[in-house]
Write a structure and sequence with these properties.
2 copies of one chain form a homodimer.
Chain A lengths: L2 H10 L9 H12 L1 E3 H11 L8 H13 L3 E8 L2 E8 L1 H25 L7
Antiparallel strand pairs in A: 1-3, 2-3
Chain A binds a DNA duplex through helix 3, helix 4 and strand 3.
Protein name (chains A, B): DNA-binding transcriptional regulator, PadR family
InterPro entries (chains A, B): Metal_resp_DNA-bind_regulator, Tscrpt_reg_PadR_N, WH-like_DNA-bd_sf, WH_DNA-bd_sf
Keywords (chains A, B): DNA-binding
Amino acid sequence: MHKFFMYIFEVMANSKLYKGSLNTIILKLLEEQGKMYGYEITQKVKALTKGELHITEGALYPALHKLEAGGLLDVEVVKVDNRLRKYYKLTEAGEKETVNRLAELEEFIRSMQQLVNPNWSID
Amino acid sequence: MHKFFMYIFEVMANSKLYKGSLNTIILKLLEEQGKMYGYEITQKVKALTKGELHITEGALYPALHKLEAGGLLDVEVVKVDNRLRKYYKLTEAGEKETVNRLAELEEFIRSMQQLVNPNWSID
DNA sequence: ACTTATGCATAAGATATTTATGTATTCTTT
DNA sequence: AAAGAATACATAAATATCTTATGCATAAGT
């Protein structure tokens, strides 16, 4: 792709990822997909959100390591085409935590809609 | 209220405020209400979200000061019952910025729903 | 050959929040 | 009347989460 268009795309794709949502996104994707590796997650998020949300590697990899350290994820290292892939999947604890995080996120979204879209609220 | 029940309430009300959303909440409330003071904002958010979202003072006051310093808010100090109130309202720049922030937030919510609620997505 | 894409990683810096205090007045309950 | 709770502001230290920058290495495209 030409550099100019890449620049344009960069600017367009600069939609904010609200802090705290990354872990929930990771957990949810793993719940759906079974297992994924880091790079795959970044691409999947781009695809699902049509380029709106951009997961940076500097955020993703530390997050994966932390989730693993916290016992929510298991890793399996695989070599494909002479390159490493680290496949992550939910542990049992991870599955339970995913339910909680999703409930929290949905609650947050509901709350935000009450604030932002007050015609839905009672008062 | 008894300390035990306050504790219980504290725990219950511990729903996460995703980082980055506070400024947008402030701007949106001011857009709706015209003018508000800090303490009023904390109470309004509690009321609108039925206790789900809890804006801490340690986050709110610095945020208000920064929005003011950035030219998005104007202040008016009023003495009521021998106590100070600092009423904030949107400047013209603040009104414009509110539109942008709300659009960003709605875009974020849309993206999250695509991720969390994939039955709405195309693929 | 050179660039882009794939795939991992980490460190430094920025930023937004929580937690912990602090001050002071008024209202409510015992 | 005393004590606690609510009202109203504020700030500093600690923590968390992210961006930006950088690094390494292989494969694929141009």
